[in-house]
């Protein structure tokens, strides 16, 4: 059994922003992106790697904080080969 690949966590991004009491505009300004971009990333779009790094930096967290948790024991096709 392997682990499921970690993916960008849209809900976690929003949670971190709201924990800080920040608006979309404030996070966007701190990360050097547009408010529309942050809105899309919180909804369902995954940012490019460099923009994910910028988001993490703006929020004061490691990049891993914006990824889904690793889930051990997930059966993948590679495990069956």
What portion of residues belong to β-strands?
Answer: 5-15%
Protein structure class: mainly alpha
What's the CATH H-level superfamily name? Answer: lambda repressor-like DNA-binding domains
Rough shape?
globular
Number of helices: 5
Write the CATH architecture name. Answer: Orthogonal Bundle
Number of strands: 2
Number of domains: 1
- The level 1 CATH classification is Mainly Alpha
Distance between the termini: 11 Å
CATH topology: 434 Repressor (Amino-terminal Domain)
Provide the gyration radius in Å: 15 Å
What does this structure look like?
- It is a single chain.
- Mean pLDDT is 88; it is low at 74-81.
- This protein has a single domain (2-66), classed as lambda repressor-like DNA-binding domains (434 Repressor (Amino-terminal Domain)).
- Strands 1-2 form a two-stranded antiparallel ribbon.
- Helix 2 packs across helix 3 and helix 2 (24-31) crosses helix 4 (49-59).
- By secondary structure, the protein is mainly alpha-helical.
- The protein has five helices and two strands, in the order βααααβα.
- The protein is globular and about 35 Å long.
């Amino acid at each position: 059994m392997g682990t499921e690949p970690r993916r960008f966590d849209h809900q976690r991004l929003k949670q971190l922003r709201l924990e800080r009491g920040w608006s979309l505009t404030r996070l966007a300004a701190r990360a050097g992106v547009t408010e529309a971009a942050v809105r899309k990333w919180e909804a369902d779009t995954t940012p490019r790697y460099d923009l994910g790094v910028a988001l993490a930096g703006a929020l004061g967290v490691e990049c891993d904080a914006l990824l889904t948790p690793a889930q051990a024991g997930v059966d993948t096709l590679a495990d069956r080969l």
